[in-house]
Amino acid sequence: MSPAGGWESTKIGAGGIPIETDRGWLIFYHGVLTSCNGFVYSFGAALLDTNEPWKVLKRGIDYLISPQAPYELMGDVPNVCFPCANLVDADTGKIAIYYGVADTHTGICFTTVDLVMDFLDNNSRV
Length: 126
Description:
Elements: E1 11-13, E2 19-21, E3 24-35, E4 38-48, E5 56-59, H1 70-73, E6 81-88, E7 94-101, E8 105-112, H2 113-122
Antiparallel strand pairs: 1-3, 2-3, 3-4, 4-5, 6-7, 7-8
């Protein structure tokens, strides 16, 4: 699927490994916006078909995380939040997402499978 505009208008690309859910493969991916100050890397979520993962079932209109904090805005490459890895607790559905910040440090944020699915159900471009 090609970039539709906004936060992922320049390009989209991979993030961490897919998470298997009862509704399909949940993925976190990065999108890039070209601004007057350079590239801005943010990340969002999508849901892929379990048996045919090239089929996108849902894809968030908006990003989940974008560079906002000083450590995300300033570094070797400014304005970067790039999902690198994720871990999910199968019992609780809690997800830890590790992400690169300004190509200088690693950040971590937490969510749940249910929260991301709710986001996609209510904010999908597909």
